[in-house]
Amino acid sequence: NCDDCxxxxxxxxxxxxxxxxxxxxxxxxxxxxxxxxxxxxxxWGVKSGSTxxxxxxxxxxxxSMIAEKTGSYFTRxxxxxFEVHFSQVISIRAGLLYTATAEITxxxxxxxxxGMSSASCSGVTVTFIKSSKDTNNSNVSLKAKYQH
Length: 148
Hints:
By secondary structure, this protein is an all-beta fold. It is about 0% helix and about 55% strand.
């Protein structure tokens, strides 16, 4: 089965807007207390109207990049979020620290300001930590999506 693991207490009601500068990267470190399979990330969609975002997502373990996906993704403000999946699912091992990043080019997006430092999803706890790879003054725009 497949579960979304949200960092926001109210994921259906984003409370803010967020901008993206050229070359800016949103990043967050995370670890789990159980093995899971990562499909990709659910990202906040455009704040108003509809548009196409240019997106590159990456997953790191330390300084080593494990996976990368680049593409164009259509987003509508009414949908709130959109999904970006890696080409293959990724095994996330319990207790290891990973970094999720997203580089987005596009209009201002929805955002939330109530990100949690940990979230329990189908019996697995995901802990989120501020990442040194973040260059967009944020660690609240990313949300890990996994199945296990």
